[in-house]
Amino acid sequence: MRLLGHTLIVGMLTILTQLGGLAWLGALGFRRRLLAFVLLYAVIWVGAVQLAPLGGRQALPCFGEPLQMQSPFYCVTLRHFVKPELADLAGDVAARVEAEFPGTLTLALDGGFPFFDGFPLLPHLSHSDGEKLDFAFYYTDAMGGYLPGKTRSPLGYFAFDALDHQICPKAWPTMRWDLRPLQSVFPGRPLDVARTRALATALLQDPRLGKMFLEPPLSEQMGLSHPKLRFQGCRAARHDDHIHIQL
Ligand SMILES: [Zn+2]
């Protein structure tokens, strides 16, 4: 029974953070297990940030401007690693948006884990090679004033902005959750269309970009159209809560 419990914990930590399960295994040898886990995790975390470049990944900034991770959650859980080329692209587009709209803070969401191609970053199907990154939308207050560093949901995902547009038939199985009951919990901040359009445009104009996903009603609202701007399809996760890009 205890073995099952530990296996579950290691499994969950591995799915969530890639390396956290190792810290739990190491902590099993200590009497003050939780403390040992926290300390071991901290050591592993620092090691991952230092060593990831050897495998061609680097950590995106957890603090600072004009680009940072949306929440400490992404940094603590080691989900903020991408290839250097993608890190450069993210920094460059954030700088372009900031140049157009001074004071704008661009927020990154899930990137990838520090090591190994093919290790999936759940629940994403594709974030497994350091070449994928999600960005949060920008939002305003009710008067249309930009809200720096703020999203609608705690982690930037799942506050959907195009639920009124029925563009897919109801299908199953599907990753296209709409999480209706959650929607009323999130504050009703309007999308900052101008800034989000500026970010999307900067991304689409960059030759390093391979492909971008955004929900068609939002692309239309922003007047965006580009061969690299795609619809992810009806069985994949929605993209009216964030922008997905890949090299
Ligand atoms: Zn994505």
What does this structure look like?
The protein is of the alpha/beta class and 247 residues long. The chain folds into two domains: 1-55, no CATH class; 56-246, Muramoyl-pentapeptide Carboxypeptidase, domain 2. It is 36% helix and 10% strand. It has eight helices and eight strands; from the N terminus they run αααββαβαββααβαββ. The chain has helices at 2-17, 20-27, 33-51, 72-76, 84-100, 180-183, 193-205, 216-221, and strands at 58-59, 67-69, 81-82, 106-108, 132-136, 211-213, 229-230, 242-246. The strands form three sheets. A four-stranded mixed beta sheet has the order 5-8-6-7, with helices on one face. A two-stranded antiparallel sheet has the order 1-3. Strand 6 (211-213), helix 8 (216-221) and strand 7 (229-230) form a beta-alpha-beta unit. The radius of gyration is 19 Å and the shape is globular. The chain starts with a helix and ends with a strand. The chain binds zinc ion (ZN).
SSE inventory with pairings:
Layout: H1 2-17, H2 20-27, H3 33-51, E1 58-59, E2 67-69, H4 72-76, E3 81-82, H5 84-100, E4 106-108, E5 132-136, H6 180-183, H7 193-205, E6 211-213, H8 216-221, E7 229-230, E8 242-246
Parallel strand pairs: 2-4, 6-7
Antiparallel strand pairs: 1-3, 5-8, 6-8
The structure holds zinc ion.
Keywords:
single chain, alpha/beta, Muramoyl-pentapeptide Carboxypeptidase, domain 2, 2 domains, 4-stranded mixed sheet, globular, binds zinc ion
Strands across the major sheet, in which order? 5-8-6-7
How big a fraction of the residues is strand?
5-15%
Indicate the structural class: alpha/beta
Highest CATH level, the class of the largest domain? Alpha Beta
Tell me the number of strands.
8
Distance between the amino and carboxyl termini? 45 Å
How many DSSP H or I helices?
8
Largest sheet: 4 strands, mixed
* Small molecules (ligands, ions, cofactors) in the structure: zinc ion
Q: How many domains in all?
A: 2
Shape: globular
* Radius of gyration, taken over Cα atoms and rounded to an integer in Å: 19 Å
Low-confidence stretches: none
Overall pLDDT level: 94
- Reading the helices and strands in chain order gives HHHEEHEHEEHHEHEE
Gross CATH architecture of the largest domain = 2-Layer Sandwich
CATH topology of the largest domain: Muramoyl-pentapeptide Carboxypeptidase, domain 2
Helix coverage percent: 25-40%
